[in-house]
Amino acid sequence: MSKVPRNFRLLEELEKGEKGFGPESCSYGLADSDDITMTKWNGTILGPPHSNHENRIYSLSIECGPNYPDSPPKVTFISKINLPCVNPTTGEVQTDFHTLRGWKRAYTMETLLLDLRKEMATPANKKLRQPKEGETF
Amino acid sequence: MSSGGENDHFYSFDEGDSSSIELYESQNTSEFTIHGLVFPKLTSVTSQESEFDINEDEDGVDTIYDGMLDTPITKNSKRILCEGSVPNLNYECLTTKGIFERMLQRVDHLQPVFAIPSADILILLQHYDWNEERLLEVWTEKMDNLLVELGLSITANVKKDNDHNSHFREVEFKNDFTCIICCDNKNTETFALECGHEYCISCYRHYIKDKLHEGNIISCMDCPLALKNDDIDKVMGHPSSSKLMDSSIKSFVQKHNRNYKWCPFADCKSIVHLRDTSSLPEYTRLHYSPFVKCNSFHRFCFNCGFEVHAPADCKITSAWVKKARKESENLNWVLSHTKECPKCSVNIEKNGGCNHMVCSSCKYEFCWICEGPWAPHGKNFFQCTMYKNTEDSKSKNAEDANKTLKKYAFYYRLFNEHEVSAKLDWNLGQTVGTKVHALQERMGISWIDGQFLSESLKVLNEGRTVLKWSFAVAFYSDASHNLTKIFVDNQMLLATAVEFLSELLQIKNPEVIMKRRPEFYNKAGYVENRTIALMECGRELLCKGICKVVE
Amino acid sequence: MASLPKRIIKETEKLVSDPVPGITAEPHDDNLRYFQVTIEGPEQSPYEDGIFELELYLPDDYPMEAPKVRFLTKIYHPNIDRLGRICLDVLKTNWSPALQIRTVLLSIQALLASPNPNDPLANDVAEDWIKNEVGAKAKAREWTKLYAKKKPE
After folding, report:
1. Which terminus, N or C, of chain A has the lesser number of Cβ atoms within 10 Å?
2. Which residues in chain A touch residue C34, judged by CB atoms under 8 angstroms apart?
3. Coiled-coil regions in this chain (chain B) (predicted)?
4. Is residue A31 a contact partner of residue A61, using CB atoms and an 8 Å limit?
């Protein structure tokens, strides 16, 4: 298998997102549809059921730098959330979050969003007190 | 899909009733849920039936194929749903191969008109999606130009100064051949059409293989000259053109989907052809559904392509399925096979469709659905079908929504229980074959006399399906209406009947089976009647607008 | 990385030794399937005097599968969208393994010379093109000046 270059890889992800092939619990798209570098993306995560996140929709911003997908993207929660892997003042997902720390080239933005959603549902995190809905960082 | 983790908390359906239903979830979502339209279990079971056949028309398959090409034998839709005012549906069951064979006959028929080789006419038809009229129209207009366009005219497509001395349309072995596709220089087999565009066999195979599933005419890699089926088979080294024809017929079916429908069952390759669709609106108007049965005995709705869903009509069905899909994220409670005995907490496995459970350890008898004691069910069967719409004094909007969700959850769970039970009944069906066998061996009963078992199983299954879908109807019905109450009573009666029959079918001892044979007849007949009654009652709810989809 | 197929090596060599006028294509050192491409705007088109940058990637299945190509320079064209994606038959259904990188790039150059607003990828641009061709071409010319590299005199 050859290495798909960054831009074509991002185009693949964009098309998957646009056509809605991905899971219903997460979505993502380009923040600026004019941005030929495809750097800034928006993501949403539907809070997992049976947790304090149930029925909430979390917005995130994702930044895919020039070395994506060899290096992980930078992910920041826009909606306020209380999670150990999220910086409580900036909303940024800490780089030691397992998916970012063990980043592989095959991972996509979807992988990342789904893993964050799983993180919200872990026994340790699902009962964490959450800020009022609608607040942002 | 699963949110993962530990889904072991319970949601109690609490409306002040002590015997309320507990809603719980498990991770076992893959097989029985309706999101994703899967019925793989049902199919795989049917296909495994080798030693016995639960269906009546044994020789139906043969007759249909024998007579198919001239005057197709038509099948009539099942009695139950066609009584009264809707006309019978005349349909036939085909396969892509069967349709292709018909097309071949048309080619022979058309040959004198075109006066070109049959293989070429086949390509013309393929290009025009097997639409003969359209082809004839274009043909009269363009004649030879059409052949040029579609790469069938060799003279027009081949360069004059072609000094190539290959044998065209034959695989040849060449030493030291340079293929311009892979740029490799090697001793290899090659292939070329009259155009002389010659490529190594492995490139040619790769090229054709990628295109077989598209169903379009495959042409030379460098010019419009068409590869005929023979050429494709020669290059591939085995009959691969059938795959191409199959894809092409598939697109034909797709384009004529008003008259042709794929059987929706997983891995079933049948196509049901309904010539005259004029009666379909009448079905819809009267809240009947045009159920058909393919040659593999899968029954489905010709209108919405879903499994048989009476008493629900297509509208209720689609609303219900959509809702199930939407809610599956939030209400991920699909049912596991094991439950703890409510008394002694020993794990009990449900191995038949019957909901009357007896704990193997403490002998406690309980109902699988509500986990309450079985005794009250004996008289007042299936309390569990009753959704108790108790008034809540402080009902606010949010609580209303929550209540709808709970109401939905309640019915969804019942729906699902019966789906799971239906699946287990099929497992039971596996053993029925063995039982029939045992009857023959040990009791000297003739095969035909043993058929009451298979018949009963079939009745049980149809009853179960109707019961299952009746919960979708119940969910969308006005609970305060009298007719809805009658409907619920009917549900209970059918549920009782189904449980009895399911219990009978679990008997293993051949002697006992034969002794209780009249009971089989009685119960099966009763289930059949109750099934029809429930369907009719559900249809009445729909016709009177008591059951309707409210957004 | 797996060894490069002979076909790709040959095409690359030929692109260097026998370049197409007005077109350059060079593989990246770290990924020989990934090309940096430039195309000069055709004369007498709104894109003339501009040099447009593109990127091209040969997927694993090349030449059975078409190359993937995208404009990196912003361009106002009914068959090219805002992300530089191109709507061109030879890149999709009409691809044939007998075509090559150079033929694809020539087709793209031809697309610049004759846009096809009836088969649009960028709907707003196509609409503009059909309703007001003169205005649309003026805008294309303006964008060429703004975003494309200038052709050396």
Report:
1. N
2. 3, 5
3. none
4. yes
Q: Which of C55, C74, C82 sits opposite A7 (nearest CB)?
A: C55
- Return the DSSP state at B219: B
Which residues are within 8 A (CB) of B370 and not within 5 positions of it... i.e. 6 or more apart?
A: B19, B21, B383, B384
Distance CA B313, CA B287 (A): 6
Residue A55, chain B, CB below 8 Å: the answer is yes
Gap between the Cα atoms of C67 and C55, Å rounded: 10
- Chain A partners within 8 Å of C124 (Cβ): none
Q: Does C60 touch chain B (CB under 8 A)?
A: no
Tell me which residue in C1, C55, C83 faces A2 most closely, judged by beta carbons: C1
Q: Residue C102: pLDDT above 70?
A: yes
Across the interface, whether the CB atoms of B210 and C9 are under 8 A apart is answered no
A38–C34 C-beta distance less than 8 A: no
Name the one residue in this structure whose structure tokens are 């986990």. B371
C-beta of residue C59 within 8 angstroms of C-beta of residue C69: no
Helix (H) or strand (E) holding B442: helix B397-443
Query: Which residues in A111-122 are b (16+ Cβ under 10 Å) and which e?
Result: ebbbbbbbbbbb
Distance (Å, whole) CA A112 – CA A118 = 10
Kindly determine whether residue C5 and residue B183, on different chains, have CB atoms separated by under 8 Å.
Answer: yes
CA–CA dist B415, B421 (Å, integer): 10
Contact between B182 and C5 using a beta-carbon 8 Å cutoff = yes
Q: Can you spell out the DSSP letters for C68-128? A: EEEE-S---BTTB-TT-BB--GGGTTT--TT--HHHHHHHHHHHHHS--TTS-SSHHHHHH
| Cβ–Cβ below 8 Å for C83 and A3 | no
Question: What is the model's pLDDT at position B408?
Answer: 80
Q: Return the CATH architecture of domain B314-543.
A: Up-down Bundle (1.20)
Measured between CA atoms, the residue of chain A closest to residue B332 is: A49
The residue annotated as part of the active site, out of B220, B354, B367, B370, is B354
A49 min Cα distance to partner chain B (Å): 5
Q: Nearest Cα to B227, choosing from B167, B150, B163?
A: B150
**Rounded CA gap, B301 and B128, in Å?**
30
Query: What is chain B's pLDDT, residue by residue, as a tens digit (551 residues)?
Result: 334 333 333 322 333 333 333 333 333 333 333 333 333 333 333 333 333 333 333 333 333 333 333 333 344 444 444 445 678 888 999 999 999 999 999 999 988 888 899 999 999 999 998 988 899 999 999 888 899 889 898 776 665 555 555 578 899 999 999 999 999 999 999 999 999 899 999 999 999 999 999 889 999 999 999 999 999 999 999 999 999 999 999 888 888 888 999 998 888 889 999 988 888 888 888 889 999 999 988 889 999 888 899 899 999 998 988 887 776 655 443 333 345 555 655 555 554 455 666 665 566 676 666 666 666 555 444 445 544 444 433 334 555 656 677 778 788 888 888 888 888 877 777 777 777 777 778 777 777 777 888 888 889 989 999 999 999 999 999 888 999 999 999 999 999 999 889 888 888 888 888 888 899 999 999 999 999 999 999 999 999 999 988 76
Tokens 């006959």 identify what position? B105
Contacts of B3 in chain A (CB under 8 A): 48-50, 117-118, 121
Domain boundaries, chain B: 154-238, 314-543
- C60 Cα to chain A: minimum distance (Å): 6
Identified catalytic residue from C87, C91, C125, C126? C87
Contacts of A48 in chain B (CB under 8 A): 3
C57 touches chain A (CB under 8 A): yes
Binary contact (B207, C10; C-beta < 8 A): no
Residue C100 φ then ψ, to 5°: -135, 175
Q: Is C87 a catalytic residue?
A: yes
DSSP lists the bridge partners of residue B272 as B93, B261
